[in-house]
Amino acid sequence: MSEQTEPTGQTEPIGQTEQAEPTEPTERKRPRRTHPASAFISGWVALGAFLLAQLRGVFDNPGYPDPRTPIMLIMLAGAAVLLIAGGLWRWWNTLFYIDDDEFRVETGRFFHTSKRMAYSKIQSVDIRQPLLARLFDMCALVVATGNAESVELRFLRRKQAESLHDYLLAKAAAERAEQVDGGSAPMPQPAAPVLVKLPNKRIVAAKFLSLSLWLGIVGPLAAAVVAFVFDVPWVSFGGFLAAGIGIVGFVWTRIVGQLNFQVSRTPTGLRVQHGLTELRSYSVPRKRVQAVTITQHWLWRLLGVYQVDAAILGSGGEDESGKSGSILLAAGTWAEVESVLGECWPQDSWKAVPVRPVSKSGWWLHPLRRQGSKWGFDQHFFVAKYGWLDWEWSIAPLAKAQSVQLSAGPLDRKLSLRSLSVHTAGSQISVSAPWLDADEAQSAFTELSGSLLAERSVASALPLADSAASRRFEPGEQAG
Amino acid sequence: MSLSPNYLRPRTIGAVIRWTLLCAIVVGTVWSLLDWIWGLAALAAGAALAIWRVLRVREWVRTFRYAERADDLLISQGLFLRKLVCVPYGRMQVVKVDSGPLDRRFKLAGVSLVTAASDSNAEIPGLDAEVAAALRDRLIAAGESKAIEL
Fold this sequence. Notes:
- The complex is a heterodimer of chains A (480) and B (150).
- Chain A is built from 11 helices and 20 strands.
- Chain A has 3 domains: 174 residues, Roll (PH-domain like), CATH 2.30.29.30; 152 residues, no CATH class; 114 residues, PH-domain like (Roll).
- In chain A, the strands form 4 sheets. In chain A, strands 6-5-4-10-9-8-7 form a 7-stranded antiparallel sheet, with helices on both faces. A 7-stranded antiparallel sheet of chain A has the order 13-12-11-17-16-15-14. Chain A has a 3-stranded antiparallel sheet with strand order 1-2-3.
- Chain A is an alpha+beta fold and 480 residues long.
- Chain B has 150 residues and is an alpha+beta fold.
- Chain B has 2 domains: 58 residues; 81 residues, PH-domain like (Roll).
- In chain B, the strands form 2 sheets. Chain B has a 3-stranded antiparallel sheet with strand order 1-2-3.
- In chain B, β1 and β2 form a beta hairpin.
């Protein structure tokens, strides 16, 4: 089928085109549209912003035209009509095809774009739900490949979004399986069993104990106290207060974004869901996990909770913590960390990696940070631990490592120290161990570069990230 | 393997140009903002640094090493910050051969490797053009036969 802008559904009336079922066998390529309400949803967001801007204009300068005069009303109405018309226009000219052969999205009439994505290149499929869309129970579907060019379909009914999400993922898995070992049936679609569900109380407690919040409160407060003591005018005090409120608000949105945290198990890996006002849900295919960091803020020791971040190839951009990559666990107990990571690497035990302390040479350079620093590796993982106050444990599976690097600055050479790092794809999390003894690091480098190669045969022999199949490779090394 | 001995000259010329430009900018700014004595001091410091850097080029080129092993490529480089990188052939996604105008005058070219991790993108500059092309072809062939999925 040629990529023409004249789709078959063009003459149908509005409201009947969405969720087109393949009823006619002669017409296989049925274009589909997003839900018509999406035009209004995106329109209302813009209208709200416009209204807000108007109101601010009235408050900020008294000379601004009053919004109740007829001319303003007409302008408002015009803007509303324009926005909704624009939304409808955009909605009408956005068509997508999801079927056995292709996934293609056509947008625009004047500036026509046709984006086609190979199923095998799909790295992740996310469902997002902004606040306004949530009121209508609508979802946006974000399909990402390895690079930044992702496709966002907004908005769809939740049910449709979920079924498309599952379809795309299954299709991607099946395509990839075909490339690897010449054909296998698409994965069955199970109901994802919940693996971990974090209590909201704990998330809130953990977030309140983290330093960023205290900086947000204590900083402006201290400034306000200083302003008071030194008798600075009240204007500056108000400014500090405003800054404080702003920062607290920012942190608050962070907390809200992490509530209702839930991790469930899918055949290809994990699915993570969180958010109170905006529900975010992303899938973490086991094969895409490049590296993992477990962090514990020093105050979190009181709660005994950890955060787990993962570098996932093709996962879209930043998340609430400001780190790129994806949060696998916002504030989990050690048992939960183990169960989530055990799901990521079912066949190898990441805990069994033998670790050793870093070199004592030149310890006076960083007397405190050296204390808890450890590193180690086996044939599956490279591990680096830091931590005296804040605690951090980075794990890189060697099967995913891109290269190994040994480096030393001039001071390091004087003290016969080396840094060893394992580069993983996406460079979101780099696992590196500094302050190693030179000889140990050298032999570790040799061994690791060998492991990178040995690991490859196992990795390419795995047909899919199917735990049942891959477990058979290492019967003696079950994650315990 | 080490770099082509011919690479010393283009690299030195490149370093001279780069450092002269940098010095000129810094000295010019200092001179116009502060007193002439400061400008002179900046000029002296800049010239010393530039001369030192240019003299170090010989050592840098001499110590740069790479080795094609059975399954991976080793690159060792650097004087101040020493690095040793090991990139398995299977991880290479793109192999590029590039040569600037200066390199071309001396019939040289550089080979750079692109992997999925931006940290481990390695570069071997200053090989003879034929050597570079042959290395690229070998690397790509090895990469294809040993490719892995991400």
